[in-house]
Amino acid sequence: MELLRSGFERIRPEAGVDPERGQWTWRVSLDSVTLAIRGRHYQRERECQSSLKTFLMAVPTAQVGDQAITMETRSARSHSAMTSVLTRRALR
Length: 92
Known about the structure:
Blueprint: H1 2-6, E1 12-18, E2 23-30, E3 33-37, H2 45-58, H3 76-88
Antiparallel strand pairs: 1-2, 2-3
Protein name: DUF1508 domain-containing protein
Organism: Allocatelliglobosispora scoriae
Region (Disordered): 73-92
């Protein structure tokens, strides 16, 4: 979270479609390092963009807990495909 805050002007939010599922997700990178990724997929681009906007608005005031939560995507293969798509092409 501190990296997101300190480099907020330089972060690169990206949204993209998983070509296998046809669903949207997003991630936030700083200096080519992914700092946040949304594990949930969305049917519509506007829902994905709204979620990304909500996340970005929360960054300046978000509080960090002392425990980490690990979550798995429903389909590791799908998540990998989405990451690959976002790595190759950031949507404008």
